[in-house]
Amino acid sequence: MTQQIYISLGSNIDARYHLTQALDALAAEFGELTLSSVFESEAVGFRGDNFLNMVVGAKTDRSIEQVVACFKSIEAANGRIKQAQKFSPRTLDLDLLTYGDTVCQHPIELPRDEITKNAFVLWPLAEIAALELHPILNQDYQTLWNEYDKAQKLWKIEFQWPKDPTN
User: What SUPFAM superfamilies does this protein's entry cite (predicted)?
Assistant: First the structure.
């Protein structure tokens, strides 16, 4: 059965390059993608370069395990250290935020807790899935974003994908 999935992408090491590589790989694996804006934010939990983050929507017939394995492969191809600390610099971080309206703890937690904890996840998700409901809270993402404490500094940046072949 085809599921709508939402994926969080983040990088703070050669971030534009790694986001582009991730989008190319995700498009090759899942076909048509729905893209949020790209947001820049300060590193959370450690000192480091600013992060670029976005959320991507796609459809898949793959299982949760297959989707996660695909993400790990894309991360590894982009130099992601397998046992990276939670609050540390990274070339690429891909997280499955939702898989349809699935609620589970295994093989991963769905929906991801980060949806309501981090502006750099919720704002871009609200941008591309405004009226979709959070599977546990039963509120749409736009409402969740409107009610969110916007203390974290976050701003949209210019980012073009796919790259314009004339440039």
Answer: 6-hydroxymethyl-7,8-dihydropterin pyrophosphokinase, HPPK
For residues 98 and 4, give the distance between their C-alpha atoms in angstroms, rounded to a whole number.
Answer: 8
For 98, the 3-state DSSP assignment is strand
HSE, CB side, 13 Å, CA atoms: give it for residue 46: 10
Q: Parallel, antiparallel, or unpaired: how do β-strands 51-60 and 3-11 relate?
A: antiparallel
pLDDT per residue as tens digits for the range 55-80? 999 999 999 999 999 999 999 999 76
CATH H superfamily, domain 3-157: 7,8-Dihydro-6-hydroxymethylpterin-pyrophosphokinase HPPK (3.30.70.560)
CA torsion through residues 107, 112, 10, 164, sign:
positive
For 125, phi and psi rounded to 5 degrees? -65, -45
Sorted by where each begins, the domain ranges of the chain are: 3-157
pTM of the model: 0.92
Helix (H, G, I), strand (E, B) or coil at 18: helix
